[in-house]
Structure formats: structure tokens, C-alpha cells
Amino acid sequence: MNLSVLDAFFLTTYFGLLFAMGIYFSTKNNSTEEYFLGGRRFKGWVVGLSLVGTSISSITFLAYPGDAFKTAWLRFLPNLMLPVAVILAASYFLPRLRRGDSITAYEFLETRFGPSIRVYGASAFIIAQVVRVSLILYLISLVLQQVTGLSEYWCIVGAGCIVVIYTIIGGIDAVIWTDVLQTIVLLFGGIVCLLVIVTALPGGFSQIIDVASQEGKLAFAEFSNGELSNVSWHLSLSEKTATMMLLIGLISWLTEYSSNQNTIQRFNAAQSEDEARKAMYICAAVSLPTWAFFMFLGTALFVFFDSFPAIAAAEIIEGTRKAEEILPYFIIHHLPDGLIGLVLAAALAAAMSSLDSSINSISTVSISDLYRRHINKQANDSHYLWAARGIGIVVGALMILGAIVLNITETKTLQDTATILTSLLAGGLLSIYVIGFFSERGDARHVIAGIAGTMVFTLWTVLSSRGYMPDTLTYPFDLYYTGLIGNIVMFVVTFSVSLMFPFKKMTAT
User: Fold this and answer.
1) pLDDT at 321
2) CB–CB of 321/312 below 8 Å?
3) Rg of the chain, C-alpha, whole Å
4) Which domains does the chain have, with CATH numbers?
5) What's the pTM value of the predicted model, to 2 decimals?
6) How does pLDDT run across 443-500, given as a tens digit for each residue?
7) DSSP 201
8) Among residues 410, 490, 500, 503, which one has the least CA distance to residue 120?
9) Which is nearest to 257 in space by CA: 237, 228, 227, 277?
10) Residue 406 CB partners (closer than 8 Å, separation 6+)
11) 224, 71 in Cβ contact below 8 A?
12) What is the Cα–Cα distance from 144 to 2, expressed in whole angstroms?
């Protein structure tokens, strides 16, 4: 399809506003402290909403409705552990990660274990984020291509350049404030879609509840053998259970709040530790109902297409089309002119809030943890500021190139590839921080042994899942639990090696 004049106007206005915000904030960026942390002057509510924009991303806008449309609410369960993780992180992680005017999440690793572990943490983050932003940009291009009729390449280059430009010129100020804007736009887009559905259904909102309840679409259920079945609550590594999904969520969110620079950089940009803690609570309070809303939107889409059947919807249920396509299909075919542009802006906002955060964080980590720390220690601050912008340009180019490569290969395992690389490079990272936070035992040698053990475990899992290992050596657990087990491996190996070999006692931080 081609956008109407009204839709194109709204979309162009949205992009123009992002540019304007980048230009406005560019006048403040006269130092790395300002460029990376905004002078550490942000209020908690601003940082909190920015964190929402980063955490919800395109997964919230596309994957959650798609998953709820095709299955039920099982994959919402891990999110319920966010408040628990936030309480723990606010009490025990935050004071350590903000100590000494820190900039990145990996400075703590050097203080506790030495420079080699800091380099590992920073390098793993950079590589994983470059893969991640390439994947997100590729997904953006698919949506843009569907609604504009432009080629995938023009969509990749156009969207990529827009994000890179306002991020590089505006610094963290532009990232945080555009994330706040994008959070608002995202929520507005979702509400518009739900209102259109409720208005179109003969029974309105009550019809959604009634049909969804009858079909089991509001349950914590797994789709298997062509039907939904409720999961159990017992502990198991061989199948998905509700209890294990909660445990996965806890590990995932504790990792997010201990070692993800996208998150830690915002904590350090807050005015004070109290404001940073307030930001964490605001993020949890807004994110959880937002995720629930978009899951419910997917449920509403199921009821809508149950009343108004469509071939595309049936193909998604059958598995011949990807579930993530359901919301873009609805936007294109069932929203009136004008609203399509607004909701499309919401879809782009979801992805761009992840891209700008990652680009800025990669620049920050590259300068603070690698370039200024190990390569060029004596340059003045203006040199590092220009170097940070240069790195942002390089990252943007790699992001665009990566998205083009993904488009050419047309692989169906993009998310798997990103997950594998992330697991190999940063598996068990939470355990390193936990040992550092709560124990004086262990040094760089012991952590390196843990990293090696975790990489071997992850590589074995990957090879086994693809049939490259004999049956006697295949993994005896559901692949969903690879990250959880990886953290256990990291902890056990690191702690065990520290008991077996002498270690240099480090000063607790």
C-alpha cells in the first residue's frame, strides 16, 4: 500500500520533531559528561519514562500482541518479576553501581576484579548491541516497506540515518527526552488500535472478555499440537512451567539492572541516588501495565478476527505466517487514513527508543571503558567528545550494513542468531556481578575460568540443538532455560576455582 497524504504528514511531522529535539539538545553537548550523562541533572520521573521507552521496544508493540493473538499469556509471566528485581536492585545494586561518579556498568568490574574483566564486560556488551540494533532496524524496515511501498533498502537506510543523526548530535539528552516522547506515542498508538477494535465488535469490550475466556486466551497456556493447554506450576527444566517462567524473569531483570549499560547509564544520569531509585520504581510501575495492555491488545485482535475472518489471520494461527505480522496487518487494513500514520509512528517509536539508547550506550562504553582507559589516556575532553560522535557514526553504519545483510540472507532464525551470540558473549554476566557485590572471594583468573566454562556450556547447547552432537550428549533441558543454567555454571565454576586456587583478596566495593 501507499500512505495517504494525511498519514505521510503525521509520519513526517513525527520524524521532524525527533530531528528538532536532536538539534536543540546539541547546543548543550560541550563535554563528555554532558554528552554521556546530561550533566547528571535528570529527575527521576524523566529517567523512569525513558527506561520504559527503552525496555518496551518493538517487542512490546509487535511481539506481545502477536504472541497473545496466536497463543495466550504465558510469556507475560516473566515480566511479573520486574517489581521484585527492582526492589533488590534498588537496595543492593544501585549504591555500588553509582559509587564514585561512575559512567558505565563495567567500571565496577575493574574495581572488583581488575581491568581484564572490565574489558570483557564492555566488549561483550558492544558486540551484542551491534547485533541487536541490526536486527531491530531490519524489523523496522519490514513494517515501513509494507506501508510505504518503498524498497527494503531505502527503508533501512532512511530509518537508520534518522536515528543515528538525532542520537549523535543530541547525546543522552536527546536519547532520554525522545524516549519519553516515544513512550507516549507508543501508548497512544496501542490505545487507538484497541478503541477501533472495541468499536467494531458487535458486543464491544465484553465480547473480548467472553470470547477470550471461552477460548482460553487469557490463561497462562502453551500452544502445542494445535491447541492451548494450561502449564503446570511445578519446577522443571524439561518443559515450560509457570514457576520456571517466573524464575527466568527474575534472572533476566536482575541482569538488566546490574550489567546492561542502557539501564545503568540512565541511573548514573539521575540527580541523585534517590532520584535513580525513583526512576526504577516508575519504570516498573509503568512498564508492567503497558506490557499487560499490549498482551490484551493481541487477545482483542484474536476476537476481532474471529468475528471478521481474514486469510492472513488464519495463516498466522496455522503457523504459515509470523505472529508479529498481525498488528501491522490490522493497522494497514482496518485503520482509517490519518490514524495509520499516527499508529505507524508508534510502531517506529517502539523500535527507535531501543536503537537510540543502544547507539549512545555503545559510544559511552567504547570511550569510557576501552579508548580512554586503555588506548589514549592523555587526550583532552573535546577529543573524547568527537571520538564518541565518530563511534556513533561507525555503529550506525554497522547497524545499517547488518540490517541489509539480514535482509539479503532472508534467514528465519534472526532472533535465534542474536540470542546465541548474546549467550556466548555475555552468558552468566549476572553471576559475576553477584559474586562481586556480595563476596570478597575471587579475582580475574577465577572469573575468566567461569567465563570459559559458561562459553563451553553455551556452545555445547547450540551445537546439540542443531544435531551436531550424539544423542548421549544432547542437552536434557528446554532451551528456554539456557540463560538461567548459564548463570549457575558461571557462579559454580568461578566460586569453585577460587576455593581450589589461591586468590588475591580484593577490597569490597
Assistant:
1) 80
2) yes
3) 23
4) 5-26+42-409 (1.20.1730.10), 427-509 (no CATH)
5) 0.85
6) 899 999 999 998 888 888 878 877 777 777 777 777 778 788 888 999 999 999 988 8
7) S
8) 490
9) 277
10) 134, 135, 138, 414
11) no
12) 10
